[in-house]
Write a structure and sequence with these properties.
The structure is a homodimer.
Chain A (H helix, E strand, L loop, with lengths): L1 H11 L2 E4 L5 H13 L12 H8 L5 E7 L2 E10 L8 E8 L8 H15 L4 E8 L3 H9 L3 E12 L3 E11 L5
Parallel strand pairs in A: 4-5
Antiparallel strand pairs in A: 1-2, 2-3, 3-4, 5-7, 6-7
Chain lengths: ~180, ~180
């Protein structure tokens, strides 16, 4: 039982709240570090600050940050995956500061995000682009009830491994409303 | 051999070219008529002209029209499905004027689009949102070499049938470059 205990302790010091304008610099530092690796996210590893924040803070998205004693250690966005007749399905994207990985921050944000999506009335959540070599993400999303519903052959150009497959993952939700 | 002959004759009178500003009204009429049905496209059936054309003529997309003797009878858009490390996969959307359906215009545009995508260097094409009840589209895309690579449970709110599944379809391309 040691590990869950440890996880709980870590989580108690983690606060997750909506992002504010003042968080932009911290979010950009995380975004830049995560995409620079070219191994998990589709964004150009050399994306500009303006483009990155323009995407993350897009008006269609709700943006959140995870704060530990060290400051902002993670961020996620939540939005409808499609407009109109597909807007009952949510989509989300998650980034954890490389220096803070392995501490359950992604899981805490994932759980927070699922609750938020249900509170907002979404009926399901879909991830459009989970890189097949990203085992940490795959394990986490499966743990949180997602399953692979699609496989896109060679759809990601991995910085080290070349063209690799991408998964589409999906999970039903129980909207609160 | 009668049907292919007939199809060939019809296609000879069909011209497909890049859309121009002057085509906007004709495109909007098609867009409005297609989405009003709420049975194939995800857009709000009551979408405004501004929003519809803003989407269709988005700068990230190349927009084409199909012209018969009657004028513009179809339109399609071609774009990268993802930015950066996913930008080698194309995405496209097609609309045929309801009054011109069943005459091979969708097929002609589909074939044109595949050639354009290869010419532009794309390595694959992905459709993110093929409504499972849209048998005409499913048959056409299978005919043109696409296969279903994903299934999204209940991801479309069909005007008549309620929540129905959606397919993700994919096809490799042989880029010219």
């Amino acid at each position: 039982m040691k590990q869950p205990q440890a996880r709980k302790t870590r989580r108690q010091s983690l606060q997750i709240r909506r992002a504010r304008k003042i968080d932009r610099d911290a979010i950009w530092q995380i975004f830049r570090a995560v995409v620079a690796r070219g191994d998990t996210y589709v964004f150009d590893p050399h994306i500009s600050r303006t483009r990155a924040l323009g995407y993350w803070f897009n008006q269609r998205r709700r943006c959140y940050v995870a704060l530990s004693d060290e400051g902002i250690v993670g961020t996620y966005v939540l939005n409808a995956n499609q407009p109109g007749l597909g807007s009952h399905v949510a989509n989300a994207g998650f980034m954890v500061a490389p220096s803070a990985q392995g501490r359950g921050i992604g899981r805490a944000m994932g759980e927070h995000c699922l609750r938020e999506a249900e509170r907002l009335g979404f009926r399901a959540m879909q991830f459009n682009f989970v890189v097949s070599t990203n085992e940490t993400a795959l394990r986490l999303w499966k743990d949180l009830g997602f399953r692979i519903v699609g496989r896109l052959p060679g759809a990601f150009h991995h910085a080290d491994e070349g063209f690799v497959d991408v998964y589409v993952m999906y999970r039903r939700l129980t909207p609160v409303v």
